[in-house]
Amino acid sequence: MAESGSPLGQKVAASLRTVEEGLEKYSLSKICVGFNGGKDCTALLHLSYAAVQRRYPEKLEQLQSLYVRTVLPFPEMEEFIQDTARRYNLRIRVVHGNIKEALGILKAQQPDLEAVLMG
């Protein structure tokens, strides 16, 4: 898709370059991907995973992800998130609240974290 030259392919390629720039700037242990099961987050997760696999084909380190859980998530969404975590070998940190609060909690719990990719 990223190499197709189509308008969508160009956008995918630009997004992939942005993720790759993040991987050049920060080590994998200092990056986290926001993932709540939505379409945008799922697309970003897929691009991030592809970029990590391309950059570190031999590395077994898990990609970190942040799941900001809403008050009453749908059971189907929870199942999708867990299935996706297994498929992409994610290390998910679940935080309750809104995004701003969750990012503050994440930073307090992981002070060495330097970047969170949000979709």
Largest sheet: 4 strands, parallel
* Rg computed from alpha carbons, rounded to a whole number of angstroms: 14 Å
Order of helices and strands: HEHEHEHE
How would you sum up the global shape? globular
Number of domains: 1
Question: So, the CATH homologous superfamily?
Answer: HUPs
Class by alpha and beta content:
alpha/beta
Low-confidence stretches: none
Instruction: Bin the helical content.
Output: 40-55%
Cα separation of the termini: 18 Å
CATH topology term? Rossmann fold
Mean pLDDT rating: 92
Tell me what portion of residues adopts beta-strand conformation: 15-25%
> According to CATH, what is the class?
Alpha Beta
Tally the helices: what do you get?
A: 4
* Strands ordered across the widest β-sheet: 3-2-1-4
Number of strands: 4
Please name the CATH architecture: 3-Layer(aba) Sandwich
Describe this structure in words.
The chain is of the alpha/beta class and 119 residues long. Helix content is 50%, strand content 18%. The protein has a four-stranded parallel sheet with strand order 3-2-1-4. Helix 2 links the parallel strand 1 and strand 2. The radius of gyration is 14 Å and the shape is globular. It comes from Micrurus surinamensis. One of its GO terms (molecular function) is ATP binding. One of its GO terms (biological process) is FAD biosynthetic process.
